[in-house]
UniProtKB/TrEMBL annotation:
InterPro entries: Flagellar_biosynth_FliO, FliO/MopB. Residues 101-151 are annotated as: Disordered. GO terms for biological process: bacterial-type flagellum organization. PANTHER family: FLAGELLAR PROTEIN FLIO. Keywords: Bacterial flagellum, Cell membrane, Cell projection, Cilium, Flagellum, Membrane, Transmembrane, Transmembrane helix. It comes from the Bacteria. Residues 140-151 have a biased composition (Polar residues). This is Flagellar protein. Belongs to the FliO/MopB family. The chain crosses the membrane at residues 22-50. The gene is fliO. Its main location: membrane.
Length: 151
């Protein structure tokens, strides 16, 4: 008889046990999510701090300035660099930098480099192309004259 009476009690105990396992699983999942969020927050803070530190470091006592550059090939460039009162013409390739020429910097240079022209947006270029095409069509087609109209 004791076997028959223990059966209903064991199902209720099993139900309580499975819910506690679910609660433990949720607690572990919550702790894991909190740890992941903490790691991501630390990475973002470190990235922001490094960006700020590097930008501040480059502005203090920068004696090196790039005057100009141009691409020569797919991975090769010619770069003009100003160091104090000297301009260096450098050839820069994949794993190598070669000094091509050295000269004194010109005296009549401006303190600030000229601002580059802002790039033309696609919408502006499209509008220009459409208006020029419209003008071209209007100039090519002769206007029909209406004899019924009086001037």
């Amino acid at each position: 008889m004791s076997v028959a009476t223990s059966s209903p009690q064991s199902t209720s105990i099993d139900a309580l046990g499975s819910s506690s396992d679910a609660l433990i699983g949720m607690a572990v999942l919550g702790k894991t999510a909190a740890a992941l969020a903490l790691v991501i927050a630390i990475i973002l803070l470190c990235t922001a701090a490094l960006k700020r530190w590097q930008s501040a470091r480059h502005h203090h006592g920068a004696h090196l300035r790039i005057v100009g550059n141009t691409a020569v090939g797919s991975r090769e460039r010619i770069v003009v660099v100003e160091i104090e009162d000297t301009w260096l013409v450098l050839g820069v390739s994949g794993g190598r930098i070669t000094k091509l020429h050295e000269r004194a910097a010109p005296n009549e240079r401006s303190a600030t480099p000229p601002a580059p022209e802002p790039p033309i947006r696609f919408s502006q270029r499209l509008a220009q192309a459409l208006t020029s095409q419209h003008k071209k069509r209007n100039s090519e087609t002769p206007q029909p004259s209406d004899s019924n109209k009086t001037p």
